[in-house]
Amino acid sequence: MAKYFKGSYLFGVVGGVFCLLAFWVLSWVGLDPIDFTLLFACLITPVFVFIGIKNYRDTTGAGEMLFAQGMTVGFVIYGLIALITALGIALFLQMAPDLFASYKADRISYLQEKQTYITENVNKEAFDKAMTEHRGMSVRDVALDVFLKIFILELFFTIIISIILKRIKN
């Protein structure tokens, strides 16, 4: 396991730092930094996973790589990107409570705009439960949400990239 981690952790760390830089720039520019950082992460993570898996195959694997090896390397990369991004956003939101309050207010406002749609298609209790959960939202909830969205989405990209880069010499 150490050889997979050693060959891939740098790609995950650099990808996570890029996501945090994007978060900082987006918040400085005045855009919604959390949602746009998620979009940015979902766009750059496959690039880092591809480069990291290819690097592993060409260096450590001596030109060969099994699907499982590609998945392991990819897991380390996108796991680190998701973890660093989520922890960095949580830290930033703790230091800037006004940004968190603004994000929370935007989510509640969006939910209130969709009240009619939700009550017609689901029921009033579901809307009330969602509203209660949004009002009780914490920084930890936002960080967990960011982590899970990046982690789960990038799993599918890693599967595809591992299949593409798999190579076995006969």
TrEMBL record:
<keyword id="KW-1133">Transmembrane helix</keyword>
<feature type="transmembrane region" description="Helical">
    <location>
        <begin position="146"/>
        <end position="165"/>
    </location>
</feature>
<dbReference type="Pfam" id="PF13858">
    <property type="entry name" value="DUF4199"/>
</dbReference>
<protein>
    <submittedName>
        <fullName>DUF4199 domain-containing protein</fullName>
    </submittedName>
</protein>
<keyword id="KW-0812">Transmembrane</keyword>
<feature type="transmembrane region" description="Helical">
    <location>
        <begin position="65"/>
        <end position="93"/>
    </location>
</feature>
<feature type="transmembrane region" description="Helical">
    <location>
        <begin position="36"/>
        <end position="53"/>
    </location>
</feature>
<dbReference type="InterPro" id="IPR025250">
    <property type="entry name" value="DUF4199"/>
</dbReference>
<feature type="transmembrane region" description="Helical">
    <location>
        <begin position="9"/>
        <end position="30"/>
    </location>
</feature>
<keyword id="KW-0472">Membrane</keyword>
